[in-house]
Amino acid sequence: MTDAPIAFLDLKAQQRRLGPGLRARIEAVLAHGQFILGPEVAELEARLAAFCGAGHCVAVSSGTDALQIALMAEGVGPGDAVFLPAFTYTATAEVALILGATPIFVDIDAATFQIDPAQLQTRIDAVRAGKKLRPRALIGVDLFGQPADWPRLNAIAAREELFTLDDCAQAFGASLADQRLGRAATATAISFFPSKPLGGYGDGGALFTESAERAALYRSLRSHGEGASRYEVLRIGMNGRLDTLQAAVLLAKLDVFEDELAARAAIADRYDQALAGHVVTPARVPASASAWAVYAILLRDGAERARVQAHLRESNIASAIYYPRPLHRQPAYRAAHDGAALPVAEEIAERILALPIHPDLDTTDVARVAEVVVAAVRGT
Ligand SMILES: *Cc1c(COP(=O)(O)O)cnc(C)c1O
What we know:
By secondary structure, the protein is an alpha/beta fold. It is built from 13 helices and 12 strands. A 7-stranded mixed beta sheet has the order 1-9-8-5-4-2-3, sandwiched between helices. Helix 4 crosses helix 8.
């Protein structure tokens, strides 16, 4: 046993693994000099669409901007209720409020941590009964890299006439019923934040849709609402483009992405085996393959979690809590929340802990992390 640090993410090891191809991609952009919407952006869009089988891909400046552009394209605004899980990153709810809409927080499934379809129906019914807001959109999140229950979510959304947006920021590369995420909802947003499974060297994101009209609207909205020419302004948009340099980096990373997904899945299986019976290991969504952005275990309570985290820290092993508070408990969202009880999200926030999972983690690292967790739980 060594005490060499085990990081949450090792972008330097990945950079070594990528080799000269990465630098060649960057050099090509420096040589042609088209830093905004250069040829690499279109090449990346085509490769991403092909990777997940989507009809259209529009690269944008971040995952958050992807979510916002998708809602702007539908005209979501004041008076609209946007349903989303209470247990997610702030960006999912932030975009609704930025556009003047009201986020309606929905509780999660205790086993998969994904938005609970039965709770979604309850929350929609309550909003309809309240007669103040119009149920308008559902943002489903594929939390930690596992797909949300899209078949059930889509059935509810169709009946209730909700626009569906897949916040797939953590789950590009995941699949459901042998189909890669990207077509599970009417629009799908992904993120290239460096720590996501397909991460760049800065901010970036993309939108997928099967609708040519929506794709055209997304392209307009990411460039200040421009029309056929650059100085024809058709609508209010934003500066939401992906940099050419980021596209170049992502193209190099796409070459190894399938291998990285397989490496992450193998690590998750190893953790499962080593930790079974000691902690609650992540439940697998049926008929799915996770992108394993996060490997999250559940401890008995907050005290046990604190003990495990302390042991990991002493052993030089990184860990993280996603998320220490559900969104409806955050100061910024308190005023927007209707006060509904969301007990599962609250309990999970107390007990959850994420362990390192990245493609450059080797088997001895995984064994060492698991051993420290088991020892901490046993109190040895
Ligand atoms: C990372 C993340 C986002 C935001 O992506 P950025 O590219 O950082 O803007 C949105 N939703 C979820 C669930 C995320 O994890």
